[in-house]
Amino acid sequence: MAPHEIRRLFKRSAISNQQKRRDLALLRQAQQRADSQNRARSIATSVLSLLESSQTDDLEPVTEGSIEREEEYKEGIYFSQASRLKGSEAKKWFSRQLMIPEWMIDIPYPLSQDWYVFARPAGKRCFVVSSKGTTVGRLRNGSVLHYFPSLLPNGAKVKGLSGPTNGYCILDCVFHEKDQTYYVIDMICWRGHSLYECTAEFRFFWLNSKLSESGACNPPSRHHKYRFLPVSIYDCNQLGLHAAYMGEVPYVRDGLAFYNKHAHYQAGITPLALVWKDENCSEYFLDTDAKGQIPSQQQVALELHDDGKLTTSDEPPVEFGCLTKDILQKMDLQPGALLRFSIGKEGLRLLDGKLEAADLQYVCRVNRTRAFADSYSKILFQYMARHCPLPLKDLLESVNMPSSPENAINDVDMTE
Amino acid sequence: MEVTQLLLSAQSPDGNTRLSAEETLKKFQEQDPSSFFVSLSIELSNEEKPSESRRLAGIILKNSLDAKDIITKERLSQQWFSIDINIKNQIKESLLRTLVSPVNEARHTSSQVIAKIASIEVPRKEWPDLIARLLNNITQQNSSSQLKQATLQALGYVCEEINPQDLEQSEVNSVLTAVVQGMAQTEQNVDVRLAAVQALYNALDFAQNNFETEMERTFIMKVICETAVAKELDIRQAAFECLVSICSTYYEMLEPYMDTLYTLTSNAVKVDEEPVALQAIEFWSSICDDEILIQEEYGDDEVESTTATNFQFIKKALPVLVPMLLETLLKQEEDQDQDDAWNLSMAGGTCLGLVARTVGDDVVPLVMPFVESNISSPDWRKREAATFAFGSILEGPSIEKLSPLVNLGLDFLLNAMKDQVVHVKDTTAWTLGRIFEFMHSPSSDFSVVNASNQPRIMSVLLESVKDSPNVADKVCGAIYNLALGYEDCDSASSLFSPYIGDVISSLLFTADRNDSTSSRLRSSAYETLNQIVRSSNISDTAGITVQLLHEIMRRLAQTVDLHISTLEDREKQADIQALLCAVLQVIVQKLSSSDTTKPTVAQVADQMMLLFLRVFGCNSSTVHEEAMLAIGALAYATGPQFEKYMGEFYKFLEKGLQNFEEHQVCSISVGVIGDICRALDSKILPYCDGIMTHLLKDLSNPVLHRSVKPPIFICFGDIALAIGEHFEKYLTYAMPMLQGAAEMCSTLVAQDEDMYDYGNQLRRSVFEAYSGILQGFKNTKAILLMPYAGNLLHFIDAIYRDKERDEGVTKAAIAALGDLADTLGTNVKTLLEERPFYKDFIRECLATDDEILRETATWAQGMLNRAIVS
């Protein structure tokens, strides 16, 4: 019996990479094949066309296919049927596509290593979609803010500027009234490439390098009705925090946004993006009512369920209270209604950061144009704002903790 | 016909006589196989005939019944099968009679022919009395030793040819009884005893039931152990071979015998002759294999598994096993590094390496004292053995355990590269290579190489690569492993950037050395160069990589102009061209990976393509494969510009597509078509008739290696996606092929892992093809695909129902489902409604953790809803 062939090679194995070369070549081919197939399938474009068709769809009646809707709703999957939804349902669908930050009720750790910070522009949060020669700005609730030409890829019907026809873009922006500018706070698709599955680190890098190249940051012109500007994004160290909090910005600041560097873009409420504010960095530290006045007691909007429970909009919902059957009947309230309460003298009772009880006083029904109840973090943030706000000092202390030598990854990374 | 003379002439020293005799024999076989077989068997059995003609008659018979190539093998067994049964019986009787022949060669050849016939007939139950007849030869009182020997050989060969399920348990029992009796000490005849041990070796696989009975197992083990100390060397060696085989087949039954086996093997290692000692070491290596496999498959926690128990024989034997192995390391041959030596020292070191992988940290304290006390010895054997021992245990133990030792020893080893003795340097360089292989992993933030020792490491390696060819070869290995650590680790690879210039020059110089008789060093140097390019940080090394590209092209141009006069020249030219094309492929792929360097490839594309075409002209298959891979990478880098090369390149592409013998070449060529499709898009159209013809021909060719089929199906998809509606004329040919493959998938039974993988590749490729074709027709003439929609849905349904399906297959199936709805829309509404399974399939895919699958399923759902609802 000859010695084991592999044994013989223990000390004399030859370096041969032919198989590795084959494998790498196959890998390259497979990746490129997947790219071209996906281009052919235009996966993201189909989503887009649905976004576009929705504004005319309001005219069409809802017909078939509605039986399974509720179930699919929860799974977040029905791009095609979205186009057939009407009114509030359509708005609800579109509002689900934006990533909604939680409010910061405690400080994530390690803030300085894993997070970015930037000054949030005050204004209307929008989806901006450029495709087939038009740009659409769409509010959080799904309704159209502007139809306009822009220098975003395929954002205007201009020869030579648009590039490949399927090179659409989807941006997450805040429209700032005062200077009529869309401030881009996140990038979801660029030239047909989806950034959904990319980390914030990569999306911001891409945003900073690609946006200005496109000419979208130029002042308005005939083919470019509104200007787009990136916001300065900083590593969340002491310098970054100061810059975001105090530094000069061309817009009205509305608190600070914190984004986890490793998080993907995710539709809906996420704890991996956070909002924080105090009275110095936001005109709207305490919530105002419809007349712009700060009510004497904190107001919250909660959703009524068929068992009488009152909950927030979180997934899963957090229960704040419960109405008895009698009251429901007496007041003729339907499940699904949004109800406004004020928080009474007893306030919120928290145990180990969890809600134990809430002193709720019924105010009124909420206007149905509003799609959502308040989130738990928002209620808590507002509650703290009135009683024991989370001060800037605590944030600064948190980033100064000598935990990590890498605290000082330079800010230039993202803003150059 | 006078066969004897023919058979003798066929062995004549005179070429013409030989050739004409061979011709005549061949004609005889073709014209009348029955008579041919009969004549040869008569010749073989006839005691009057010369032994030379009898032997050749037997060999030709044997070769007329079996072949390595599976297709020929099938043809030959069909030929035998079709011979008249009476003639076959006559032949078999004559062969059995020959076993008693006094002429050893006739007996032996006859036993081989019997086994070949058995391999055809026993599985079909067409030779029911074979085993009984053979056993009768042994049990009969008056049987000669010669008959016993030949019969035992025949039994051994028969067992080698057939599978355990082909014999009844009662037959197995009788065979084992006969064989074990033949092995016993009471057997006086040495030849009989040897034949018996060798037969047992082949019969071990049949003994499953017998091994499960303790009494029988113990008896068999006892006889083998007695045989392992027989007086005759070859009997002892054969007995140890049985033990090696037993420890992989019956590992879980060995425990009661381990003490005995340990004593037996360690005696053999210490005092027996080398062939026996090597088998004794192999015994322990096989035990390591078993335990490593168990640990890999079931984790090394000591949970009793129902399928495999780890008895930890190695761990238990460690205190005695390791010293025994260390002793063997001192038994080097003087010139062991000169060729592929296999001796005690090599086998011992290899086994030690396996022991380290089996037990991990525990081996370290047992080996280190030997290393420390010998590594500075004035005796080169001790220095080499110490280094070999250290190098052997670098894989297995934890990094925590090893890194202090390696940190401490690294400088010593670097100094040892100046040892007086080549063997020591050779082993030291090998050990450095192992250190970089296992202890240098910047991508996981661990490396024994750091900014302070790296300059010295590099200067020693670059100096030592000039040493004798064997040492230089190992140094290339060390540089290779060092570079490999930086692959896919851009941040750390910059640390390597400052050295790359010098490393590349040294490797180019090494590749040019002509002081070595073998081509091994040249090959190592170029392969190492490839790894350097792959691992380099392109933003640091763009310039130098482009320089290297020009140098390699210059070298390739030289090989084309080489004067070729002998076959050897031709081979050498082909070897060098294959290596250089490989380097070009790696460089092109590297430069194409970055937008800043990609244009540099386009600049030299003309020149490079011209070179490749000239290389194709030199005609050699390995070059063909490497050059093809390079051209695929080039097509990607150049894009539509590649069109201008198609006219010239096409004929070589065709050649590749027709290369059935070297299926890798064929497969790679098919893959390159995909690259070209993506580079040229619809401009590939003029070549499609030709390409499709070849692909379809390939698929219907029975000798095509199965591994080429999936790439061909995928290629259909690539072509359709590129040329769209122009694919129409191929539909009637391509679609039935896809349908056939889909049907085959459902009948495919995965007997082993290879077959299982192949089945999945085939399934995936069929879906990829459907996807490409559906997307190709999306914008025009989609309706042409309606006739095929039902089949596709049926196939997807079948895949859905297979709960064991592979994830890659699932992805491809879901994508094809979406493509079907995307392209055919409401046309498939009715079809879908008839097969509501798709809803469950989508739901299942939406619930997975795999993001890509979820995304594809979401998209597919959108497409399906559109088709159903509107």
From TrEMBL, chain A:
Identification of the protein by name: Snurportin-1
**Single Gene Ontology MF annotation:** RNA binding
Q: CDD domains, per this entry?
A: Snurportin-1_C
Task: Identify the keywords attached in UniProt to this record, alphabetized.
Answer: Cytoplasm, Nucleus, RNA-binding, Transport
Which family does this protein fall into?
Answer: Belongs to the snurportin family.
One GO cellular component this record assigns the protein to is: nucleus
Role played = Functions as an U snRNP-specific nuclear import adapter. Involved in the trimethylguanosine (m3G)-cap-dependent nuclear import of U snRNPs. Binds specifically to the terminal m3G-cap U snRNAs.
**Subcellular location per the Swiss-Prot or TrEMBL entry:** Cytoplasm; Nucleus
Q: Which domain of life is it from?
A: Eukaryota
- Report which residue ranges the record marks as coiled coil: none
A GO BP annotation = snRNA import into nucleus
Classify the main location.
cytoplasm
Which Pfam family, an example, fits this chain? Answer: SPN1_m3Gcap_bd
Boundaries of each Snurportin-1 m3G cap-binding domain copy? Answer: 97-273
From TrEMBL, chain B:
Annotated SUPFAM superfamilies: ARM repeat (SSF48371)
Q: Which GO terms describe its biological process?
A: protein import into nucleus
Looking up InterPro entries in the UniProt record yields: ARM-like (IPR011989), ARM-type_fold (IPR016024), IMB1_TNPO1-like_TPR (IPR058584), Importin-beta_N (IPR001494), Importin_beta (IPR040122), TPR_IPO4/5 (IPR057672)
Q: Can you name one GO molecular function term for this protein?
A: nuclear import signal receptor activity
Question: Cross-referenced SMART domains, in alphabetical order?
Answer: IBN_N (SM00913)
What GO cellular component term, any one, is given? nucleus
Keywords tagged on the record: Cytoplasm, Nucleus, Protein transport, Repeat, Transport
Name where it's found. Answer: Cytoplasm; Nucleus
Protein's UniProt name: Putative Importin subunit beta
Query: Which organism is this entry from?
Result: Zostera marina (Eelgrass)
